[in-house]
Write a structure and sequence with these properties.
Layout (H helix, E strand, L loop, with lengths): L9 H11 L3 E2 L1 E6 L5 E6 L2 E5 L4 E7 L8 H9 L1 E6 L5 H6 L10 H4 L4 E2 L8 E2 L4 E14 L2 E13 L4 E3 L4 E2 L1 H4 L2 E3 L6 E3 L11 H12 L2
Antiparallel strand pairs: 1-13, 2-3, 2-6, 4-5, 5-10, 6-9, 7-8, 9-10, 11-12, 13-14
The structure holds flavin mononucleotide (FMN).
The site of flavin mononucleotide has 17 residues, from strand 3, strand 5 and helix 2.
Length: about 220
């Protein structure tokens, strides 16, 4: 069925996007205002965009024109943020940090979470999060009057000790991180418990397979 977006309301376009693009990893972003106030909110329009340099991106939708979400305003002013990742065990506290509290309310305190210092940026990370990426703003792309995409360069990674299999080779126990992804609708998520392996195929291997099939 064709959905020509010229004839679809903004609300319904959002529904099409979130119903089909998923699971989406959750960037649980901490930022700091110039006065030092720490802010925290989850963003599932998020992913890694480049390996070298390491670049992540997330999208901030508006409640109206301008930087009405605190996260975007803070990053514009300070140029720094931390992307924490959310495990299944932290899903409920993460959801609490998404409540539209008035400015100044400490979302982390409301959710019973604590912070730990970062090493390269002033913004603290969420101590309980199994992964945290310290980021420096590369660019903010305004994609509409009330939407922006933030691109950040990752300058440091924190990974929960018991999820690091081999520090020198950077082998991480991904299943043990138990990270969640956001799905359709307002409240659906998935866990990474239904995995399967599919190794990449080289040109030589592909030629071998075709030759074997032709010889059958
Ligand atoms: C799992 C989850 C994912 C979310 N993803 C986004 C998103 O990608 N973009 C967005 O603008 N808001 C998203 N939200 C809503 C924001 O977290 C929410 O508006 C938050 O209050 C913004 O906080 P701030 O004003 O402190 O930046 C999401 C909420 C949840 C629970």
């Amino acid at each position: 069925m064709l959905f020509d977006l010229q004839n679809v309301t903004n609300e319904n376009v959002y529904k099409l996007l979130v119903a089909t693009i998923g699971p989406r990893p959750v960037a649980w972003v901490t930022t700091q205002d110039v006065d030092g106030t720490v802010n925290c909110a989850p963003f599932s329009f998020f992913n890694a965009m480049s390996g070298n340099p390491p670049v992540v991106a997330f999208g901030i939708g508006g409640r109206g024109p301008g930087d009405v979400k605190d996260t975007g305003g803070n990053i514009r002013r300070t140029g720094q943020f931390v992307v924490n990742l959310c495990s299944y065990a932290l899903a409920e506290p993460m959801n609490i940090t998404a409540i539209d509290f008035p400015k100044g309310v400490d979302e982390l305190k409301e959710a019973g979470l604590t912070t730990a210092p970062s090493t390269h940026v002033k913004v603290p990370r969420i101590a309980e999060a199994p992964v945290a990426m310290e980021c420096e703003r590369l660019v903010i792309v305004d994609v509409g009057i009330d939407r922006a995409v933030v691109l950040g360069k990752v300058v440091a990674f924190h990974i929960q000790d018991d999820c690091v299999l081999d520090k020198d080779r950077c082998y991480i126990d991904t299943p043990k991180l138990d990270l969640i992804g956001r799905l359709h609708g307002g409240g659906w998520y998935s866990r990474v418990t239904d995995r399967f392996e599919l190794p990449r195929i080289s040109v030589e291997e592909w030629a071998k397979r075709k030759a074997a099939k032709a010889a059958e």
